Amino acid sequence: xxxxxxGRIVAGTxxxxxxxxxxxxKILWLTGSYVGVLRPDLFESAEMVGANAATFGMEAVGLVxxxxxxxxxxxxxxxxxxxxxxxxxxxxxxSIALSMPLVLLVSGPSAFTSSDVLAVWVYxxxxxxxxxxxxxxxxxxxxxxxxxxxxxxxGRYGPARHPLQLVxxxxxxxxxxxxxxxRLALAVTADATLGMRIPQVVAGLxxxxxxxxxxxxxxxxxxxxxxxxxxxxxGSTFGWxxxxxxxxxxxxxxxxxRSPLDVVEVFAxxxxxxxxxxxxxxxxxxxxxxxxxxxxxxxxxxEGDRQTADSGHH
Length: 314
Prior knowledge:
Helix 7 (163-189) packs antiparallel against helix 11.
């Protein structure tokens, strides 16, 4: 077993384990057992039931994809079924993984003691799980992508072949800078503790970093740091923007009140989407197609599908 396969299996297994507490809590809430809930009346509303069902579904998709990172059948999944949910998922989790250690450093345990809706222990269980699964899932996917699409890591993509791609990249950078500065301004002016402002600061920096890295890729620069920053920045911008827009549309106890951030989130959703679509075209501009991989020794009956992915696939 090579080191890449070992790393993928270990990281994927850790991600799977980190998802189980959150899934368990969601199952309990959806079945009427409001463990850790101080206000059960809020969780009985249609909006909260729908939100819990949706977030459970998102985590269940992550569970399947984490399993795919360590099993051979995962290498034959259509590319979009892997890349799209992982792009959004790692984007959402990256901002949590980056901000939570800083929040704890600044606020300490008091960061989890101000809610009158959930018990104190729920927050470290949920957000601790998010941090672990975010890091583990990103590592597992990096090993997975390196085995399945090695030409991307070798730098055999781009630069932009059409002038319009550069126009889009520069426009995306402009929007990312404006959105990032808006997030930073809202974080600075918000009537909140320093610990509560940190997630907004991290989100703003991720947005700006994503725009800078994507333009660098479009201009022909190579390197994993550019790929990772563009991937996480665009995914975070789109994922959190869409999440906020959905909450605003749902309303009820989830939507909160109107604020200047609403406009920011709408533009963030659109900007992240444009970067994701344009980035996909950029990575395939070298003439290669992102497609499913199959082990050359596998028979048609797929008898090895239940074995772990202990060898590279190219």
